[in-house]
Amino acid sequence: MSMLETTAPLTGAETLTRRERVVLAELAEDVTLEEIATRLFVTRNTVKSQVRSVYRKIGVSTRSEAVSWAVAHGIR
């Protein structure tokens, strides 16, 4: 059995990049994507892309689900 076969599968929290964690935490605030982009010094489209990536990785499809997931996993 190889080392790869003995490791547990990654959960959504472990696969998120540092920036995705920041964006996920920002989603919990009552702000728009434009406001998040301004805070992070990136474009709104960059934030949209990062949000889509977060949703895909953690298996959610709405902002409220993402925020609930973040709270449950100690990200917020």
UniProtKB/TrEMBL annotation:
SMART domains: HTH_LUXR
Chain ranges of the HTH luxR-type domain: 9-74
Record-linked Pfam families: GerE
Superkingdom in the source lineage: Bacteria
Gene3D superfamilies for the chain: Winged helix-like DNA-binding domain superfamily/Winged helix DNA-binding domain
UniProt-listed PROSITE patterns: HTH_LUXR_2
GO MF: DNA binding
The keyword DNA-binding is annotated on this UniProt entry: yes
This protein's UniProt keywords: DNA-binding, Transcription, Transcription regulation
Keyword Repeat: no
InterPro entries: Sig_transdc_resp-reg_C-effctor (IPR016032), Tscrpt_reg_LuxR_C (IPR000792), WH-like_DNA-bd_sf (IPR036388)
GO biological process: regulation of DNA-templated transcription
Designated name of the protein: HTH luxR-type domain-containing protein
Organism expressing this protein natively: Cellulomonas uda
